[in-house]
Each structure stands twice: as structure tokens, then as C-alpha cells.
Specification:
seven-stranded mixed sheet; four-stranded mixed sheet
Length: about 425
């Protein structure tokens, strides 16, 4: 049945629509931190549909909210008052840390970043954007144009002039040998030099932890130091929290808070986990920025009632059950467990991450050269052992991405780590 579905997939869908595994997997249902395939095999899910099933599969509170709302009305567009959208916007604005915040809902992180770029360029009357090397911000025309990861950038054409800044990757590149303070100083000097050679940019967009790029991040405080330089010149700071938001990093509710010394960003984008699988994204910005557009705009599907109901129920569950604290505690245990394994596996260059957002970088032993074939081997072996994980990396790196639902238990973390250990030792 799966082979037939694979053949049908290849016949009607794009060649560039990537699938994991030599024998692709059809997931039919899930519960908690587990999913099942069409053959009835059970897996621990340590990737959550690319960090999107943030809380748990088939979470009763969310499924009930969706079913109840679907029984009343599913959709009406933003042309009509929408109580669930207003209620979720109120909660997101209050949690954002942005003063006088306004919220606009979209259907994806790509669309959220696209909207943030529209707001920033319109507000600043500039189409120049600063972005980080190794970054990923989505697959729309404008988002591809600011993505600093060649593997996810199919064209150099763009409506924007994009300039790339150092700092998103701590352990590679020309400043990797420096201490944290010296690293930040060097990146700030690079930013200052870059600004001396270009017209005034609209904004800097940055992921606090680079997701597709392999869960890389700078030392805490880098974006706070950047913020000081940007604020002096009126340049906006956009924090792409599509993967880092809602407490996944454990230490903070938003990834930008690790860099919050100079205040919150001007714009925050979010998506993925807030809907726990439903299609929800959005933008948070100061009122003066959000309201700068001088033409009509709506969203047909952004903020639709059924997705807002899911978001409200999911956010309530996350806060009431302190899933941020759980990500910090269980994620810390999982990271230490994987680091102990990595010390005995020559292919592992580094285990890094925060909370339940963990990257295991693989290289050819004794070198800094990527080992994509090793990553593929581990992915397959982990599946064979009953564990689903992801892959990532950029600029000739190969990284295993580990990002379970944030309700992960200690026992499940130990079980997943044991499976991943066996997979790593199989290289």
C-alpha cells in the first residue's frame, strides 16, 4: 500500500518535494509522543512534523476545541468580527513583550515572515534587508530571497537587496576560535562595517536559534548588541520565532529573550507549534509599524475560527502545564545523555541546543567535513529502532535534529536517547 502511494506521489507532486527515508513513511495516527504508520509500526516522535506538533499528538483539549468550533462555524474571513481570533490575539500580544503590540494571523511561518518583510520595508521605505548566514525563513519568493542557506534557496532573484551578517553559527566560520565576548565584538564590528557600505536597511531578520540550519545559535547577547547598533540608525529588528517560540528552548518563552538586554524586537513572527498541527502563523509588531500600510489588506484563511480555537486551547494547555519548564528539565537531561553518547562516537562533532531543540552534528571522524551519508544512516537506523528524528544543516554540515513534543516524559527521553545511541553506534 505504501509503495503504491509513493508511486502516486511521484506521479502528481513536484520532484523537489522531499521525502525522508529510502522507503517513505505514511503516518496514519498519533497519540501523545507516539505515531503509527500504515503497517501498524509504532514510533516515538522526536520531530513533531518539523516542530509543529508542539504539545502532543491528539491532545484531547485541542481536538475537542477544534471539533466544537467546527460544529458551529469553521471560517468567515477577516472581513467579519471573529471572537476566537480577538481572544488569541489578546493573549499573544500580552505574552510578546512588545509594547502596544498588534497581531496579524497568517497560515504559515513563511507567510508570517513575508508579512514582516512587507511591514518593515513599507515602514522604512527601503528594500534592503540584513539577514544571517545559514538562515532559513520560508519558501515564498521574498523569504527565499533572505534565506542564507544554499540548500533551501532555489533562486537568486528577489524583490529585496539582502546583505548577510556573521554570527548565527558559533562553532564554524572566521570567528569560531574566539571567546564569546570576542565573538560578539567581532560580529558587531562586521555589522558596523557592512552598514558603512550600503544604503540604510529596513530591518535585520534573525532566528534566535537557526532551525533548518542545524539548531545553531550565537552566544547570548549577540542580538542585544546588534540591537544597539540598529536602533541608532532606525533599523528594525525582526525575530523569527517560528521554531523557537512558546518555550521550546526551556530557558525562555521566546528565543529573543536570551538577547533581551536592549529590549524586545520591533517585530516577532511565529507559527508551527502554536496550532499543535493546525495551520497557524502570525506577526506581532508595535502599532506604528503594523499600521503603516496605506492600502487595504485582509486574510482569507489567516485567523480562521477553527485554527484560532486550536491555538487558544493549545496555548492554555502549554501555560497551565508549564511545558516550558518541562522542556528545560527533560531537554537538559536529554542533551546531557546525548553528549555522553557523543563522547564515544567519533562521527559526532557536537551536541548543541536548548530545551527540546537539540542538534547532533556529524562529521567524518577527525575532520570538520560534513558526513551526510552518516546522517542518512542514523535517520534510517533510528526509524528501524522506533524513533523519528529530523535532519538539517547548511554550508557543508550534516546535523540530526531532535525536537520532541514539549510534553515529553523523562522515561520517553531515556527511551529515545537509547534508540538514538544504537543508531549512532551503527555508523
Amino acid at each position: 500500500m505504501t509503495r503504491d502511494l509513493f508511486a502516486r506521489h511521484r506521479a502528481v507532486l513536484p520532484d523537489w518535494l522531499a521525502l525522508y527515508y529510502e522507503d517513505p513513511l505514511e503516518i496514519t495516527h498519533g497519540e501523545g509522543r507516539h505515531v503509527w504508520d500504515a503497517a501498524g509500526n509504532k514510533y516515538l516522535d522526536f520531530f513533531g512534523g518539523i516542530l509543529t506538533t508542539m504539545t502532543a499528538h491528539a491532545l484531547p483539549e485541542v481536538t475537542k476545541a477544534v471539533a466544537d468550533q467546527a460544529g458551529r462555524i469553521i471560517h468567515s474571513s477577516t472581513l467579519y468580527l471573529n471572537r476566537p481570533m480577538v481572544e488569541l490575539a489578546e493573549r499573544v500580544a500580552q505574552l510578546s513583550g512588545i509594547p502596544d503590540a498588534r497581531v496579524f494571523f497568517t497560515t504559515s511561518g513563511t507567510e508570517a515572515n513575508d508579512t514582516a518583510l512587507l511591514l518593515a520595508t513599507a515602514h522604512r521605505r527601503s528594500n534592503t534587508v540584513l539577514a544571517m548566514r545559514n538562515s532559513y525563513h520560508g519558501r515564498s519568493f521574498s523569504a527565499v530571497g533572505i534565506t542564507g542557506n544554499r540548500g533551501w534557496s532555489p533562486t537568486s532573484l528577489s524583490p529585496l537587496q539582502t546583505l548577510y551578517v556573521h554570527g548565527g553559527v558559533r562553532t564554524r566560520g572566521p570567528y569560531a576560535h574566539l571567546g564569546d565576548r570576542e565573538f560578539i565584538d567581532a560580529c558587531v564590528d562586521d555589522l558596523l562595517d557592512l552598514l558603512g557600505h550600503t544604503r540604510a536597511p529596513a530591518a535585520l531578520i534573525a532566528e534566535p536559534v537557526q532551525g533548518v540550519g542545524g539548531f545553531t545559535s550565537p552566544p547570548d547577547g549577540l542580538y542585544a548588541a546588534f540591537r544597539e547598533v540598529l536602533r541608532e540608525r532606525g533599523i528594525l529588528w525582526i525575530a523569527d520565532e517560528v521554531q523557537t517560540g512558546w518555550g521550546r528552548t526551556g530557558e525562555h518563552f521566546w528565543g529573543w529573550q536570551a538577547h533581551g538586554r536592549s529590549g524586545p524586537p520591533d517585530i516577532v513572527t511565529f507559527a508551527k507549534g502554536i496550532g499543535n498541527g493546525m495551520s497557524v502563523g502570525g506577526v506581532i509588531a508595535r502599532a506604528e509599524i503594523m499600521n503603516c500600510l496605506d492600502a487595504n489588506s485582509i486574510s482569507t484563511f489567516g485567523g480562521t475560527q477553527v485554527t484560532m480555537a486550536a491555538g487558544l486551547a493549545n496555548l492554555t494547555y502549554l501555560l497551565e502545564h508549564d511545558l516550558q519548564g518541562n522542556a528545560r528539565r527533560v531537554g537538559g537531561l536529554l542533551i546531557e545523555r546525548l553528549r555522553a553518547v557523543a563522547a564515544q562516537v567519533p562521527h559526532v562533532r557536537e551536541v548543541r541546543g536548548r530545551g527540546l531543540m537539540i542538534g547532533v552534528e556529524l562529521t567524518r571522524p577527525g575532520t570538520d567535513e560534513a558526513a551526510p551519508e552518516a546522517a542518512s544512516t542514523v535517520l534510517e537506523e533510528a526509524r528501524a529502532g522506533g524513533l523519528l528524528i529530523g535532519k538539517g544543516g547548511g554550508h557543508s554540515t550534516s546535523v540530526l535534529r531532535v525536537a520532541p513534543p514539549m510534553s515529553l516524559t523523562v522515561a520517553e527521553a531515556e527511551e529515545g536517547a537509547a534508540i538514538l545511541e544504537r543508531a549512532l553506534r551503527s555508523i
